[in-house]
């Protein structure tokens, strides 16, 4: 059986060589369809890779966030709760103790407001954060020093500002150390300048324990647990969830991970991939009809040959196998040309996209794309080669030979 199948494929290659130009024209639909499919899948895979990189650089994928749920659902409508749990510094300490895996934990409160800087009380618009530990895993001191956990516990009136804040008020990051700023009723001494993820706007951070109760109730803080290993995200999330259920049975607090953002992005790209694949599939379908047309013409041209083969003992199964092998070979040949054309097309398109968008985007060629193309080649060969193969196998050998 294997020998017969191999022989059928060799015969198919011989027939393609004999009618090369005719075959190329006939599979032009497959070539264009597969090229478009390769280009679209590669570009979408590149977009997905770029999106994942952007998400991972702006947020930690290992972060687990505990956040107050300030709304409740009544008759499918979300309304504000009258009372809800607000996270406090003691809660933050308890969360640290509840975690068994290595992790960096911090509590944070964020808002935007204006502060008065220096003796002139110059107003500065600023992003404000209150933290319960060394600012975050993504910040480091440029000049001066960050406040410590001891400063938090002792409610020290210190604050650290980012580079943008320092440049906005004094044009340098050194002379600002030791200066004071006023935020609401708090007079804070600047102990350091930091750099971190919030580099676009003036920002400041002060100890969480300086916040008034009214400030946290109007804008509840959140606790972030950044585990060292991605494998520990789900186990630590389970530990936190168990602690919350024990501590707050009223369900006021929710636990989130940034993997949700990745999953949402993946779902969007998967949907886009399927829709575009279906649209491009129409071209592939037209190409399959072209393959069937080639084989039907081949049946007519080789009627005598088929009759002779059946007369000397070839079975219907042998004839069907021969034409299916030829169909699969033709569609595989067209798919290979389409694959090469699609890759070449993306190599030309990517620099143009980069020049227009100014984004460091690259197409991604994945194993899935090549597997899809291989499956398409086989499926087209079988689906569109079956009818010509059956038609050839049904020829009467005597009538076929007489046609000469």
Structure description:
With 404 residues, this protein is of the alpha+beta class. It has 2 domains: 2-56 and 263-402, no CATH class; 63-257, no CATH class. The chain is 56% helix and 20% strand. The protein contains 13 helices and 12 strands. It has helices at 2-18, 20-26, 28-58, 89-98, 149-153, 163-169, 213-218, 233-247, 259-301, 303-311, 316-357, 367-393, 397-402, and strands at 63-68, 71-74, 77-80, 103-117, 122-131, 140-144, 158-162, 180-183, 186-195, 203-207, 222-227, 253-257. A 6-stranded mixed beta barrel has the order 4-5-10-7-9-8. It has a two-stranded antiparallel sheet with strand order 2-3. A hairpin with a 4-residue loop joins strand 4 and strand 5 (122-131). The longest helix has 43 residues, at 259-301. It is elongated. The mean pLDDT is 79.
Q: State the share of residues found in helices, binned by percent.
A: 55-70%
Name the average pLDDT.
Answer: 79
User: Which residue ranges are poorly predicted, with pLDDT under 50 across at least 5 consecutive positions?
Assistant: none
Which class best fits the helix and strand makeup? alpha+beta
Shape call? elongated
Please list the strands of the largest sheet in the order they lie side by side: 4-5-10-7-9-8
What is the percentage of strand-forming residues? 15-25%
Major beta-sheet overview: 6 strands, mixed, barrel
Q: What separation lies between the terminal Cα atoms?
A: 31 Å
Q: Number of helical segments?
A: 13
Number of strands: 12
Return Rg in Å. Answer: 34 Å
Order of helices and strands: HHHEEEHEEEHEHEEEHEHEHHHHH
Number of domains: 2
């Amino acid at each position: 059986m294997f020998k017969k199948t191999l022989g059928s494929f060799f015969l198919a290659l011989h027939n393609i060589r004999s009618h090369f130009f005719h075959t190329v024209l006939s599979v032009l639909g497959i070539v264009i369809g597969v090229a478009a499919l390769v280009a679209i899948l590669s570009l979408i895979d590149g977009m997905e890779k770029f999106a994942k990189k952007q998400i991972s650089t702006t947020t930690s994928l290992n972060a687990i966030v505990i956040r107050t749920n300030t709304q409740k659902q009544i008759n499918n409508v979300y309304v504000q709760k009258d009372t809800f749990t607000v996270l406090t510094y003691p809660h933050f300490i308890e969360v640290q103790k509840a975690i068994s895996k290595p992790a960096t934990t911090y509590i944070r409160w964020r808002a935007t407001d204006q502060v008065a800087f220096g003796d002139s009380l110059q107003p500065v618009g600023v992003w404000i954060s209150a933290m319960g530990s060394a600012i975050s895993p993504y910040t480091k001191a440029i000049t001066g020093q960050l406040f410590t956990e001891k400063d938090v516990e002792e409610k020290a009136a210190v604050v650290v500002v980012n580079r943008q804040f320092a440049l906005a008020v004094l044009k340098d990051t050194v002379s600002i150390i030791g200066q004071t700023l006023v935020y609401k009723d708090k007079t804070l001494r600047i102990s350091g300048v930091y750099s971190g993820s919030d580099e676009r706007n003036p920002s400041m951070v002060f100890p969480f324990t300086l916040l008034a109760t009214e400030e946290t109730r109007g804008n509840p803080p959140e606790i972030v647990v950044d585990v060292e290993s991605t494998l520990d995200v789900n186990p630590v999330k389970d530990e936190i969830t168990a602690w919350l259920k024990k501590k707050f049975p009223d369900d006021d607090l929710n636990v989130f991970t940034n993997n949700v953002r990745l999953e949402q992005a993946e779902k969007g790209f998967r949907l886009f991939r399927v829709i575009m694949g279906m649209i491009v599939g129409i071209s592939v379908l037209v190409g399959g009809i072209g393959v069937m047309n080639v084989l039907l013409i081949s049946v007519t041209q080789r009627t005598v040959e088929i009759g002779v083969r059946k007369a000397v003992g070839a079975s219907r199964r042998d004839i069907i196998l021969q034409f299916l092998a030829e169909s699969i070979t033709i569609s595989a040949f067209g798919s290979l040309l389409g694959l090469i054309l699609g890759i070449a097309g993306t190599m030309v398109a990517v620099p143009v996209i980069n020049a227009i968008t100014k984004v460091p985007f690259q197409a991604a060629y994945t194993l899935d794309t090549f597997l899809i193309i291989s499956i398409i080649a086989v499926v087209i060969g079988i689906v569109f080669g079956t009818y010509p193969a059956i038609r050839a196998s049904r020829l009467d050998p005597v009538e076929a030979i007489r046609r000469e």
